[in-house]
Amino acid sequence: MNNLVPMEFNSQRILTTEQLAEVYKTTERRISENFNYNKERFQEGKHFYLLQGDELKAFKDQYGNCGMVNKNASQLYLWTERGADRHCKMLGTDEAWEQFDNLEETYFKVKEAALTQLSPELQMFKQIFDSVAKQEMKQKEIEQKIEVVSHRINNLDATNIEGTSRQRLNDIIRKYAYEKGIQYNIAWKEFRTNFNTAYHTNIEQKKTNYQGKNNVKNISYPDYLERVNLIDDALRVADKMINLSWLL
């Protein structure tokens, strides 16, 4: 945290994906996957900025020497405090929660120059207020962690964990459709999009090629994934979808 290079955009402190991954002790790929799975929950200008063209060039000119900006990048995501908060919730690890608390207190905190001009009495009241606010924030974080755990337990209870892998995949997608209030076939479409993004592939094309090569017709996606030994990867994607569907 002490080595975090401070950068700003649009008068806001921001973090690159690389910085965010370093602070939260995860990978840039994990940050990108969480974003791609949940793009509808991120608002540009509020949670992130996407720099391209002249904006990106200007940002590179300003911060290119700090080592946190790839000079060959054609686009760059910058995360605001609210965006960092959302990624913290999605990661859900104790370390991420702790590091976000540190970010709030140091990196994102706006220094109040006028504070030193307050009387000793007002400074004392402000310290009391800040202490109470911090305790309330801690309590909120604890409640959010409990909510995450409870949600996952409820999903586990509602999913058939004794059936085959194909049955479990179908059960998770069916529950995902129910929780989001969408049709079953739409839920499968979202699964395929998430799977393609997570593993940088085209499952639709690969399934079509498999059917032609093996002379089979009307094979389901769960059946195909099981035949090509990708069912465990599919379950990981489906599990992430169901466990993140409750977020804002």
Report on this model:
By secondary structure, the chain is α+β, with helices and mostly antiparallel strands. It has 2 domains: 7-104, Mlu1-box Binding Protein, DNA-binding Domain; 159-244, no CATH class. 64% of the residues lie in helices and 6% in strands. The protein is built from 11 helices and 4 strands, in the order E-E-H-H-E-H-E-H-H-H-H-H-H-H-H. It has helices at residues 17-24, 28-37, 53-63, 81-91, 94-107, 120-158, 165-180, 184-199, 203-214, 221-227, 231-244; strands at residues 7-9, 12-16, 48-51, 76-79. It has a 4-stranded antiparallel β-sheet. Strand 1 and strand 2 (12-16) form a beta hairpin. Helix 7 runs antiparallel to helix 10 (221-227) and helix 7 packs parallel to helix 11 (231-244). The radius of gyration is 22 Å and the shape is globular. It starts with 6 loop residues before the first strand and ends with a helix. The model is unreliable at 111-115 (pLDDT under 50).
Outline of this structure?
Helices cover 64% and strands 6% of the residues.
Number of domains: 2
CATH topology of the largest domain: Mlu1-box Binding Protein, DNA-binding Domain
- Report strand order across the widest sheet: 1-2-4-3
Name the shape in a single word: globular
Proportion of strand residues: 5-15%
**Percent helix range:** 55-70%
CATH architecture of the largest domain: Roll
Instruction: Give a count of the beta strands, DSSP E runs of length 2 or more.
Output: 4
Low confidence ranges: 111-115
**Number of contiguous helices:** 11
Largest sheet: 4 strands, antiparallel
- The sequence of SSEs as H and E is EEHHEHEHHHHHHHH
Secondary-structure-based class equals alpha+beta
Query: Oligomeric state of the chains?
Result: single chain
Alpha carbon gyration radius: 22 Å
